[in-house]
């Protein structure tokens, strides 16, 4: 009887110690965890509006967006001191994301998505005739 009680107390002690260490680890790594649901929903809703997704595509894309945002936060945290490595990892993540999108979206939706991405990445060239000194 004494050994059973001792074993139970030892198990409870170890479990609480492990839980405390896990909480400390999450406190040290704030970038790891789930992205806010509102952020995932907003990103997916914007894509749904511009790409005219059906319900199945919306559900699959929401899951992929959740993974992408969580991984982006993780990469930003892990490589915060090494900007070159961070950019490389984010580039790999973006390539994986586009592969997943190509499995979900139709060819016409994919071309619209890529056109929107191209608009976002290419800065507008300033008009030399506008603004400036005269």
From TrEMBL:
Source domain of life: Bacteria
Keywords: Signal
Region of interest: Disordered: 115-134
Residues in the signal sequence: 1-17
Protein name as annotated: Uncharacterized protein
Organism: Hymenobacter yonginensis
């Amino acid at each position: 009887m004494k050994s059973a009680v001792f074993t139970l107390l030892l198990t409870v002690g170890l479990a609480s110690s492990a839980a405390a260490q896990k909480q400390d680890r999450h406190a040290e790594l704030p970038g790891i965890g789930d992205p806010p649901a509102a952020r995932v929903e907003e990103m997916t809703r914007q894509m749904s509006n511009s790409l005219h997704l059906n319900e199945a595509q919306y559900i699959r894309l929401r899951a992929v967006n959740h993974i992408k945002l969580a991984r982006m936060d993780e990469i930003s945290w892990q490589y915060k001191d090494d900007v070159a490595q961070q950019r490389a990892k984010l580039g790999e993540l973006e390539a994986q994301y586009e592969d997943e999108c190509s499995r979900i979206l139709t060819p016409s939706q994919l071309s619209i998505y890529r056109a929107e991405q191209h608009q976002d990445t290419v800065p507008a060239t300033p008009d030399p005739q506008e603004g400036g000194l005269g």
